[in-house]
Amino acid sequence: MKNVWPRPMAFTDILKPPIDVELVKGCYTCFKCIGACPVGLKPSLLVKAYLGSFLQEFRDVYERVIGDQSIWHCAKCLKCFELCPQKVPLHEIIEYLQYEAAKQGIQPRSYAVMVENTMNTYVAFTSQTIVTKDGGVYSTEDARNVLGLDPFPGSQSSEKFKENVKKLMGV
Fold this sequence. Notes:
- The protein is about 45% helix and about 5% strand.
- The chain contains 9 helices and 2 strands; from the N terminus they run αααααααββαα.
- Strands 1-2 form a two-stranded antiparallel sheet.
- The protein is elongated and about 55 Å long.
């Protein structure tokens, strides 16, 4: 999984500065966030990993967490933040840890492809092959056609992309 991409484009360029360490230290591991996480992330481990990016005491936790695929599973639902009595921004901690992993070339190939597609064509996903449990093979276009959906757009200019976004937003 290492070195999937030589330089994680865009992702490393847009992330906000790190979260205030004192705010993060405010987590007193009440575990209210753990039961609410739809993907089963362990927030107290993520807090230690974040601190480990600055403090040697938790460096081993940091290394273990950024090398683990689970940080990419965050649903960005913000339940952890909503339930946290200290308002520790766990969603931002996860983004930071993803950023740190991406800097080291540790990220799912599918994520790298999605970012690359978006930057090159302004469309996150291209056509894919779908294999059903009974062995049927279909393309994404076939499925969209059966469902009565428009085909995926091809590559488009940035102006066309902006125009489509405005149309979608009703602007």
